[in-house]
Write a structure and sequence with these properties.
This protein is of the alpha/beta class. The protein has a single domain, classed as Metal-dependent hydrolases (TIM Barrel, Alpha-Beta Barrel), CATH 3.20.20. It is 38% helix and 17% strand. It has an 8-stranded parallel beta sheet. Helix 5 links the parallel strand 5 and strand 6. It is globular. The relative contact order is 0.15.
C-alpha cells in the first residue's frame, strides 16, 4: 500500500512571540510541526516595537519561522521617532519578509483615524523602500484602505489582506488590485457567511490561511487559546467553500505564501528543496 503524502501547511499570520506563549512556546511550535505546519510568519506588530524585536529574534533561531515588523493600527497614535527607527532598522533584516501588520481599524478606533492613515502610508513607503510586501489589517475601512493602497503604490511590492472580514465585493476588489486575501478561523463561525462567500471570489493562487493566534481559534477549538496547529481547521473550512480537497488547498496556500513573502518554497511533502 502506498503511504499517503502528508499534508503540509503554512500559518501566514501568527503572534507566537507574545506573552501568551511564554510558558510553552517550544511545545506550541512542536505541535505545529506535528500537525504539518512547516512555516510560520510571526507578526511583530503588537504594542511597542519590542514585539518586532521578539519576532525577529524568534525567526533568527528557528529556520521555519519568518518575521514581519510594523505597528498595529490600534497603536498608531502612540508611535514616536524611536518606534520608527526600530522598524526602519529591522525592515532590512534577512529574516523579515514583510512590513506589517499595518492598516486601518475603524471598528475599534483605538487610535485616531488620521494617525492610522498616516502610519499606514508611511509603512507602505517603507515596504516599497525595502522591496517587501505589506501585511494589512483592515476592519470596517475597506474603501478608505483601498484608496491608500492605490495612492501609495502598494501593488508594486504586493501584499496580504490579513484576517479578511469584508464582503465578497471587497475580496474581488483586492484581487483586482493584485493583493492576496488571507482567511482566519473566523470563517468557521456561524455568523461569517459573507466571509465564506468571499472565498469563491478569490482565485486559488491568491488565497492564504492563518491563525492570527492567540486570537480567533477556529471551530472546533473556539474558546481556547489559538495556536499554529489549529490552522488545519481553517484550511478544511476554506477548502470546503472553494470546493476542492484539503490537500489541494493546503498545497496552494503553501506555495502562495512562499511566493508573496519570497522565501524558499516547500514541496508538497514538506521537504526543503
Amino acid at each position: 500500500m502506498t503511504t499517503p503524502t502528508p499534508i503540509v501547511y503554512t500559518d501566514s499570520h501568527a503572534h507566537v512571540d507574545g506573552p501568551e506563549f511564554d510558558a510553552d512556546r517550544d511545545q506550541v511550535l512542536a505541535r505545529a510541526r506535528a500537525a504539518g505546519v512547516r512555516r510560520i510568519v510571526v507578526i511583530g506588530a503588537v504594542g511597542e516595537p519590542s514585539s518586532a524585536e521578539r519576532a525577529v529574534a524568534l525567526a533568527e533561531r528557528d529556520p521555519d519561522v519568518f518575521a514581519t515588523v510594523a505597528t498595529h493600527p490600534h497603536d498608531a497614535g502612540k508611535m514616536t521617532p524611536d518606534w520608527w527607527a526600530v522598524h526602519e532598522r529591522l525592515a532590512t533584516h534577512p529574516r523579515v519578509v514583510a512590513i506589517g501588520e499595518t492598516g486601518l481599524d475603524f471598528y475599534y478606533d483605538h487610535s485616531e483615524r488620521g494617525a492610522q492613515a498616516d502610519a499606514f502610508r508611511r509603512f507602505i513607503a517603507l515596504a516599497r523602500k525595502v522591496g517587501k510586501p505589506v501585511v494589512c489589517h483592515i476592519r470596517d475601512a475597506h474603501p478608505e484602505s483601498r484608496a491608500i493602497l492605490d495612492d501609495c503604490g502598494a501593488a508594486e511590492v504586493g501584499g496580504v489582506i490579513h484576517c479578511f472580514t469584508g464582503t465578497p465585493d471587497d475580496a474581488t476588489a483586492y484581487v483586482a488590485m493584485g493583493f492576496h486575501v488571507s482567511f482566519s478561523g473566523i470563517i468557521t463561525y456561524k455568523n461569517a457567511q459573507p466571509i465564506r462567500d468571499a472565498v469563491r471570489c478569490v482565485p486559488l493562487d491568491r488565497i492564504l490561511i492563518e491563525t492570527d493566534c492567540p486570537y480567533l481559534a477556529p471551530v472546533p477549538r473556539r474558546g481556547r487559546r489559538n495556536e499554529p496547529a489549529f490552522v488545519v481547521h481553517t484550511a478544511e473550512a476554506v477548502a470546503h467553500e472553494a470546493g476542492i480537497p484539503v490537500a489541494e488547498l493546503a498545497a496552494a496556500t503553501v506555495a502562495n505564501t512562499a511566493r508573496i513573502f519570497r522565501f524558499p518554497a516547500l514541496d508538497v511533502a514538506g521537504a526543503y528543496p
